[in-house]
Design goal:
alpha+beta; Alpha-Beta Plaits; two-stranded antiparallel sheet; 12 helices; disordered C terminus; binds iron/sulfur cluster
Length: 334
Amino acid sequence: MNMKERQLAMVIDLNKCIGCQNCTVTCKTMWTNSSGKDYMYWNNVETIPGNGYPKNWQDMGGGFDADGSLKNGKIPNMSKEYGIPWEYNHDEIMSAKEFKPKTEPTWGVNWDEEKGGGEFPKDNYFFNLPRICNHCSKPSCLSACPHDAIFKRQKDGIVLVDMDLCQGCRYCIAACPYKKIYFNPQFSKSEKCNFCFPLIEEGLPPLCASDCSGRARFVGYLDDIEGQVYKLIKKYKVALPLRPDFGVEPNVYYIPPFLSPPKFDKEGNIIENSDRIRTSELVKLFGEEIYDAIKTLKNEKRDGNSELLKMLVASQDKDRFRFKNKDEANINAL
Ligand code: SF4
Ligand code: SF4
Ligand code: SF4
């Protein structure tokens, strides 16, 4: 990255995500509420453990091998892995005793929402995982495109598709290991999250971040050493990228869920210092760094003076969203 290049990043605190789907709805309403985009969720919030959206995306390949070559990936199947969006007959909803969707659903976004894992009431658990395009530093979608239709902006690292150049060949979809680029069959083009760049250019946060009811999201530049995004990722090292093993250097980071309630023993007594959320689940998602991150989060002194904990409380939007420098943050316009 040369001196003029900058990278925006998002941090999402999984302890504060309540799965309300405000982010999903605001993004859908703003960006994917038109022809050919019914099944697209540039932002989705899935349940862990669960199969996610598209179904079993983590096992679909894509990204880079250790030697830097593109890894084979698959394009998700529309009916089995995205699920064809279903419609209701709205007249029937008001009058019939029983009504069914016009087509039988097979899979869809939030299909396994809050199902979770473990055994009730002993150790059942789940947490929410919001996902957008990671605006990767090494975007495999870009590398796979034979028409140079995908580009990464130097000034903020946002990855975009040039609709005039896209030929709809879908190599990018196979190559993205997060399956965060979608094919629009209506226009034969690939489409993806644009990090709400028209808002960013006005000094405002992306909609999924500003509309987050849990105040779980932070947005800022990775090189802004006074910013909270920098501090959470680089100074305290408590925000980690999702599936770093995919090799694309994602720029959405997560504070791991470290506040899960304790388990019960078979007599129903609390097992002290036990966590319901399985560390093995977290290691798969965020790598071995999870151990140090959780240690730091748990050991931080709760005396009201911790910079880290104050940041995570996130009481000030002007600090949570910071795009230029402190003086230029345009949060009053929200
Ligand atoms: S998450 Fe996927 S679509 Fe987004 S930049 Fe990375 S490789 Fe491309
Ligand atoms: S950054 Fe904007 S376009 Fe991307 S998921 Fe969030 S709301 Fe949607
Ligand atoms: S709006 Fe915020 S709290 Fe609600 S689901 Fe999205 S990330 Fe989670």
